[in-house]
Amino acid sequence: MNSTNRTVVVTGIGATTPLGGDSASTWEGLLAGRSGVKVLEGERYAELPVRIAATAAVDPGEVLPRPLARKLDRSAQFAVIAAREAWSDAGFTAPAGEDEAVAPARLGTVIASGIGGVTTLLDQYDVLKDKGVRRVSPHTVPMLMPNGPSANVGLEVNAQAGVHTPVSACASGAEAIGYAVEMIRTGRADVVVAGGTEAAIHPLPIAAFANMMAMSKNNDEPLKASRPYDTGRDGFVLGEGAGVVILESAEHAAARGAKVYCEVLGQGLSADSHHIAQPEPTGRGIAAALRNLLETTDLKPSEVVHLNAHATSTPQGDVAEIKALRAVLGDDLDHVAVSATKSMTGHLLGGAGGIETVATVLALHHRTAPPTINVDDLDEAVEADVVRDTPRPLPEGTIAAINNSFGFGGHNVVLAFRTV
Known about the structure:
Elements: E1 8-16, H1 23-32, E2 38-39, E3 52-53, H2 66-69, H3 74-89, E4 107-112, H4 118-131, H5 140-144, H6 148-157, E5 162-164, H7 172-185, E6 191-198, H8 203-211, E7 241-249, H9 250-255, E8 262-271, H10 284-296, E9 304-308, H11 315-329, E10 337-339, H12 342-345, H13 352-366, E11 368-369, E12 385-386, E13 392-393, E14 400-407, E15 411-418
Parallel strand pairs: 4-5, 4-6, 9-10, 9-14, 10-12
Antiparallel strand pairs: 1-7, 1-8, 2-3, 6-7, 8-15, 11-13, 14-15
């Protein structure tokens, strides 16, 4: 057997998001078209130009035991919660080795974060200034490390094939999943826990993004602030949470009788080489990633019936993505049901690719495209079939879906999935 040709499948999913504390409640919220955006309460947010965010529906401190939670940054807390759900959903009952269905040396984790333990860093600096050196937590360094979430998930499941953390801004979660696919295809692992997490709702990141003119300032109508493709869009809304999938070689999944959600066809990668923060306006780099996906997989444009778009609600970015899709897919874009789930979850930065992969997998599994909310006046430059307000059934037969993720620095990652 040529190990580089191994088929990769999804056998488990987990999430904790602004819509729900697990994947089921998150999916229910997506189908209901419910916004998770809220007004940020508290004095430290009062003077900010942006006072809204999509906070987690279930605080991780309510789920994790206190001794564990106090040693983990919030981003790692989200990752552990989502990974535990995904691990159980895949049918594993204990860490690798204890559960004999997977050997520790054949298990890896790839959990990404765009910013890592930023809240730990900022909060502990405040402790240092206000209370002195001796009050700084000895757990600070392991908590603030960007690889902390992946490392802690690896410890949870006893992963020994490799524990990795790709960092590519808002493309990080998707790149983590693509990296996990390659771990399995090259024969380095049989099972990989993969996804993205983020917890950056803090005055400093919010002020910084706001001063870049990247975030919506619609503080008076938080539920309507995240509005991809609408002519009135004025930037993204920051979200938090994690999305994790269990990826597995098809042979390994079949040998243990695992259920399979769908096949992961592969990834397409490119870089804009345009600007550190602004999207390339023609979509040239995104188109290159899409072409890379088509060249390196057996995906045909005619198979694609659903897209979970990056669509953050920025004026330039939303249109550039559609231009790229049209340039590569041509008329086949007309039969693609486009969903922009950030309209409900907000933008989870490095966690976005993880959560939106979970949404894409569930869309194929249930053959239902979730809606995009808050599109009151569709931008005429968005020449695509946007699913608006209510879910839409997807066709029968073998169908495929794409999940797009792009990040500051010009990172472009597109993932493709197909029913089995």
